[in-house]
Amino acid sequence: MQKFGFIIHPIDVKDVARKFAVASRFPDHVIERVLPLVPALTTSHITGVQSLNGAKAEGWFVSVPLTPRLMMEKLPEAKVIKRIISAGRKAADQGAKIVGLGAFTSVVGDAGITVANNLDIAVTTGNTFTAATALMGIEYAAQRLEIDLSRQTIAVLGASGSIGKACARILAQKGMQVTIVARDRSRLEELARLIHEESGADVRIETDLSAAVRSAGVVVAVTSAMEAVIDAGDIRPGAIVCDVSRPRNVSKAVAQQRQDVLVFEGGVVSVPGQVDFGLNFGFPPGTSYACMAETMILALEGRYENYSLGRDLDVAKVREISALAEKHGFKLAGLRSFEAAVTNAAFEKVKAQLHLQKRKTPFLEERPVGTAYGGKTP
Questions:
Q1: pLDDT tens for each residue of 229-240
Q2: Which of 84, 92, 44 is nearest to 65 (CA)?
Q3: Which terminus of the chain has a lower count of CB atoms within 10 Å, N or C?
Q4: Cα distances (angstroms) measured from residue 186 to each of 164, 180, 205, 207, 209
Q5: Which domains does the chain have, with CATH numbers?
Q6: Is 375 exposed, middle or buried (0-12, 13-18, 19+ CB in 10 A)?
C-alpha cells in the first residue's frame, strides 16, 4: 500500500465551520484571531485509491488552519512556512512518503522548496498536473464549442507564476496567439524572451488585466489574488475562461449575469478506484483537484521524490505526469463551474452566442492588446 498526505487550509473563515460547527457561533474576526493558535490537525483518512494496474494507495488530509489572508498578509512568512512544515511532519507521522501542498500552502515563500528541505519525505505542489489539466480543459471546451484555438487570442493571467508560465510556454509551442499578463513587466519580458528562444514564438505582454481579458477569446486565470479579479463586465461574449485559482479569480457575479461565456474550474480530475476522501470539499464523489491527483499519481507510481517545486515548472514534466495519469486511470472529469457541472445546455448557449457574433462580424479578426515581444504594438 502506497501512502501520501495532502495539506489543505480554509479558503474562507466560514469554511472553518464545516469542520468545527461551534465556529459558526462567532464573528469572522474572532475566528481569524484564533486560527493562528490552532495547530495542524489530521482532517480525514483517504481510502480506496486504486490504479488501473492494481496498485493501491491511502492518504491523509492534514489541515493548516490559516486562511489565505492570514498566510499572505497578516502573519510573518517564516511563521506560515513553519506551520506548513509542521503539517508535513504530521502527514509523515501517519506514514505518508510524499505530501502535496494545496492552495496557498504551495504559494507562500519559495513555493515548497523550504518546506521540502525541512521534511524527511518528498514534497510536491501538484502544479505540474494542474497546468496539464487546465490545458486539457481548454481543448475539451474548444472542441465542444467548435472553436479553432489557433484563431483565438489566449490571455494567461498570472503568467509570471509557475502554472501560468508553464501554460504560456506550452501554448506558444503549439503555435497559439498568447498574451502573457502580470503586474511585473520585467518578469513578463524575461518570460517572453524564454518563449522566443525555445519555440520562436512572439507573445504579447500586458500589465492591464482587464484590457487583456476583454480582448481575449480564451483566458487562463492563475493569479494568486485573494479576491476576484475578473468581473462580469470584463469578459467578451462567447469567451472561454479557465479559472485555476483558489480563491477564484472570476467573480461569482459572472455565473448570474453572463450566460454567454463559458467559465470552468481548471484541474478537476476523476480518481480511479472507490475513493473516499472522508471530507466534502465541494466536488462530486470520486473527483479531486489536479494538485491532489498529482500527489496520488506519484504515490501509486512509487515516485517518492520532490516533483513540482519552485516558481518554474519543467515543461517536460507536464507531459510526463499526463502520461502517468493515463497509465493509472486519472482522467479529466468533464468541466465544472461554480460548484456545478457544465451542462450541455450551457455549452449550447455559448455556442449560440459565438454563431451570432460570426453573423454580425463575419470578417472580424483577432486584435490582441498589449505590446508584442520585440517592442511592436498591434
A1: 999 999 999 999
A2: 84
A3: N
A4: 16, 12, 10, 10, 16
A5: 2-126+272-314+323-328 (no CATH), 129-267+335-372 (3.40.50.720)
A6: exposed
